[in-house]
Structure formats: structure tokens, C-alpha cells
Amino acid sequence: xxxxxxxxxxxxxxxxxxxxxxxxxxxxxxLVAVPLWSAPAPAVTTDQPYPVPANGVYTxxxxxxxxxxGMSQYGAYGAAVAGLDYxxxxxxxxxxxxxxxxxxxxxxxxxxxxxxxxxVSPAAGLAVRDLGSGTTYPLPPIPGATRWxxxxxxxxAVVGYFTGAWxxxxxxxLSTLAGDxxxxxxxxxxxxTPSGSRVYRGSLRAASPSAGSTxxxxxxxxSVEDYVRGVVPAEMPASWSAEAxxxxxxxxxxxxxxxxxxxxxxxxxxxxxxxxxxxxxxTAEDPRGDAAVAATAxxxxxxxxxxxxxxxxxxxxxxxxxxxxxxxxxxxxxYDGRTRSSVHSWTTTLSAAxxxxxxxxxxxxxxxxVTQRDGNGQWGGRVATIxxxxxxxxxxxxxxxxxxxxxxxxxxxxx
Length: 415
Description:
By secondary structure, the protein is α+β, with helices and mostly antiparallel strands. The protein contains seven helices and 25 strands.
């Protein structure tokens, strides 16, 4: 579909492993979980053996989609249908938090740009800013030029334009920039990546991952409010009840500011995937999402004066789970399941042969044995510990580990 090809070979993106980690989960109905930094729930000892069925295939019943910490997105929808406004929704899902405001800008890693250059289409007012000298250089219209880029020569940033081939451009006669560079314009910029194009507000920076690096990563420097405009419809259908979408806007904004405060000096402060929260620039924007952002402008949740860690997931199945903060509580949720959802309760199958293939050391599987749950809801709640009882040996997994290996929607399941 995309005719433009980048001149620099593909490379691996930087690792997102840090103090905030988690499993990335793509949710139903366009929802994306934010499965970050989960604290283990208090475990209740149980003994629930599930022998291998005669046909060798387990029927798995479960509730929810995602980790269940903080706000359930389907629950927020159900609460809005029940008449709660966004403030009441946030107070229910994050009890003990306070309201505050936040402004400023955010540095977002653009993970789809897997090359070391930043390539954009010509745009009104296009300029390059040298972050080393602080000087901004206008980039003039050049006949036949269809792309501009920031690249790297050795360890220094260079500017180029494309007219069937790439040419070096020397603003004011400079051969290289004094520091990292960023492209900016009077209008949103079209960024070209190996997978196509996407449009971003703010500026696009070719950022050095470390001092003296020969590599560069693409970072979108954008206002918090414009960032949230590109997050909300990517995380929740903008067609849902307005109060639910407003709650999503507050949760997304608060999470972004929390992540910014966690990473004040790093060259990027948040990523754009479900390892953080999904951000798609102007591509995701929707008038209904924009209205939700405007209606909640600058509002965030705080705890003890700092931005709260507003985790959320698609569905908690009727019980939220305890997380790593006092306001991430385990509680019955009367709103999750109030609206029609394929993830509040679900059923799938899992064969003994698949389990044996994933863990060949156990030999023939004899039974699955759940030994700990969190104690909340049907079957005793989410699985904390499960044992694969094999003829040769046993293997013990966490419920989240079992869920991840076998692609279950949550750790709240039974056989």
C-alpha cells in the first residue's frame, strides 16, 4: 500500500523494561488493557483438582479481560448507563484519590518507527530545531521534494530531503547539528515509517537513546491534552456513553502524567503501545473523544499530592483486584456486566496436548490443580497458583503466568 521506502534498514526498538512492566493485552471491541505493575493479590489456599477429561480437552470458563486493577472500561460504561457521572465513576474505581490538574508536554516513543531516521512530508511552516544550540532553522519549499528527514551521520544529526534520491541539506551552511534535532511545523506532521504513515501534533524528535549514540529513536513531543486526544478513542469506543468516555480521558491523562513524573529525564517518558497505553496521534482522534477531553480539561486524580497510578482494563468480570496502591482495591463491581459484553463471562477450550507441548518435562498431564485463589467471587476468585500435575513431574505457575502462556482473557477461570 505504501510506496515510500526508508533508506535505513529496520532495527530493534529500545527495551521498555523498567520499573513499570507488564503483559500487553489487546482487548475486545477496540479496547486495550494497560496491564502494568501488578502487585500479587492476597492468596487464599484451596484445593481444586481438575482431572484431564476423557476427550483430553478442558472447557475453560472465565470472567473478565485484563488484570482487573482500577477502572473496568466496560464497568465505566455500565456505570454511565446507570446514571453516574465521570467524577462518580472515578471515585468508585479509585477510592481515596483526590482531584487535581496537570499541564505541560510529554515525550512519547513512537514504536512503529523502527528506523533511526525521522521522515516527514513537507508541511506549512516546517522547520528543524537544533536542540544542542537552541536554534530553529526554517526548511524552505524545494521543487520536487516529497520528504524531509532527520538522520544521523556518525553520532551527529543531519538534515536531508528526497527528490527521487536523498540529498543533504545544510541549514545556514551547517553540515551537522550541534545536538539532537526535531522537526516541527505550523500544522500536524505526517510521519513515514516502514509500516506506512501516521499524523502527529506537536514535534517529532530524532532522539539519542544515550549520549554519543549512533542510533536515534522517534519521539513525539506533544501537549498532554493533544496526547490524550490520540489515546481516548484508541482505548475506548468514542460511541459509548459520554460520561464513560470522560472517565477514560481522566484515567488516560492521569496515567500519562504519572508516567511523566516517573521518567522526568529519560529521552521518552511514555510509549505508545499497550505496554503503556495506546496512542495513535491524530489518526485516532474522534469528535466525541475530543469532547470528552475538553470536558475534563487538565483534570487528573492524585494521591498524597502526586498523580495516581490509574490502571484500567477492559473488564474485571464483576470483581476488581487489589493492586500496588492503596486506591487499587479489590471490590465487587455492580457495573461490569450491566451492559452486554463478550468478556464479562467467557468460555474457551484448552487441550491437555497443548499443555504437554508447552511443558514437555511434565510428561503426560494427569490433572490441573488450583491451590490458591484471591478469594473474591465465583470459584473463589482469580487463580493465584496452579499446578500442572504430570506423570514425570509437577510444574507450578501463577495464575497470570498460566493465563499468559495459554492466551486466556484473565486469571479468573475454572475448568
